[in-house]
Amino acid sequence: MKIREIVDTLDAEVVCGESHIDEFVTRGFASDLMSDVLTLDTDEMVLITGLANMQTIRTVEMADVKCILFVRNKQVTPQMLELAQEEDLVLIRCKYSMFNAVGKLYTAGLSPVY
């Protein structure tokens, strides 16, 4: 699934990394526990989370995740945006709950990590 399809499916907003929206992600993982993210094979994965803080950006940097979807209309702080731009990350936000967003993405064809 292209990142653009995630944006379209969820009527989401690209906050950072718009130049990468035609790149692919094949799997999704939803969690607010960043320690769980560090245990995964993150190749071509989108992280779906409601945890909008610097810890999230630092975690995906270490885990080599390139795309974060923030649910529940979470706001990206200027510090988060600055680091995400430095790391060339895609940040997206949508209005849906995590449950609803994951359901819509699964129905649209995004596979789970496990």
Short characterization:
With 114 residues, the protein is of the alpha/beta class. The chain has a single domain (3-112), classed as 3-Layer(aba) Sandwich (Udp-n-acetylmuramoylalanyl-d-glutamate--2,6- Diaminopimelate Ligase, Chain: A, domain 1). The chain has 5 helices and 6 strands.
Report on the architecture of this protein.
- Helices cover 35% and strands 20% of the residues.
- With 114 residues, the chain is an alpha/beta fold.
- It has a single domain (3-112), classed as Udp-n-acetylmuramoylalanyl-d-glutamate--2,6- Diaminopimelate Ligase, Chain: A, domain 1, CATH 3.40.1390.20.
- The protein has a six-stranded mixed sheet.
- The radius of gyration is 12 Å and the shape is globular.
- The two termini are 17 Å apart.
Going by CATH, the architecture would be 3-Layer(aba) Sandwich
| CATH superfamily (homologous) name | HprK N-terminal domain-like
User: Helix and strand string, N-terminal first?
Assistant: HEEHEHEHEHE
Shape: globular
Strand content: 15-25%
- Structural class of the secondary structure composition? alpha/beta
In the CATH hierarchy, the third-tier topology is known as Udp-n-acetylmuramoylalanyl-d-glutamate--2,6- Diaminopimelate Ligase, Chain: A, domain 1
Mean pLDDT: 97
Strand order of the largest sheet: 1-5-4-3-2-6
| Domain count | 1
- Overall radius of gyration: 12 Å
* Total helical elements: 5
Q: State the total count of DSSP E strands.
A: 6
Query: What is the terminal-to-terminal distance?
Result: 17 Å
